[in-house]
Amino acid sequence: MTHIIYSEVCRDQLGRLQSEAHCGKSCGMTDPAEIAQSFASLAPACDFWSVRTLRSRAEHLGVTRGVADPVSLSEDVGAMVTVHAGGGLGYAATSDVSSAGLKRAAAAALDWAKRSAGRMVSPLPLRTGKPVQHD
User: How far apart are alpha carbons 85 and 65 in whole angstroms?
Assistant: First the structure.
């Protein structure tokens, strides 16, 4: 059985996120809202940023030659940072969702955005501050 929690928060949505009620128990730094708030406090100066988080929990059961294998539990947590800066676009991913890990990912994404500025095939879309609706 696998349980996946996926969330994306951009700079323009952070105020809404902070005002929403959450699960009532501390989920640690695997909670998408806490990761986004942590990232917001150290996000680079740029035109736009977003952070997508993924938390996956899985339980694996198996049988070898008619004998049950030990139950295996796993949990994966990660974040994908997107930065628009100066007409460029940069991405960076990390499985270290601590403040230091998010800061390294933000710096890498900003570096890639600066490198791609002026080299984009098409211009970046204008950010209106309104969330994108997918039907």
Answer: 56
Q: pTM for this one?
A: 0.67
How far apart CA 9 and CA 16 sit, in angstroms, is: 10
3, β-bridge pairs: 57
Burial of 29 (0-12, 13-18, 19+ CB in 10 A): middle
For 60, 89, 127, 130, the CA distances from 133, given in Å and listed in that order, are 35, 22, 14, 9
Measured on CA atoms in the order 33, 39, 41, 45, is the torsion positive or negative? Answer: negative
62-114 per-position pLDDT tens digit: 999 999 999 998 888 889 999 999 889 999 999 999 999 999 999 999 999 99
56-62 long-range contacts (CB < 8 A, ≥24 apart) are 56/2, 56/3, 56/4, 56/5, 57/2, 57/3, 57/4, 58/1, 58/2, 58/3, 59/1, 59/2
d(CA 43, CA 61) in angstroms, rounded, equals 40
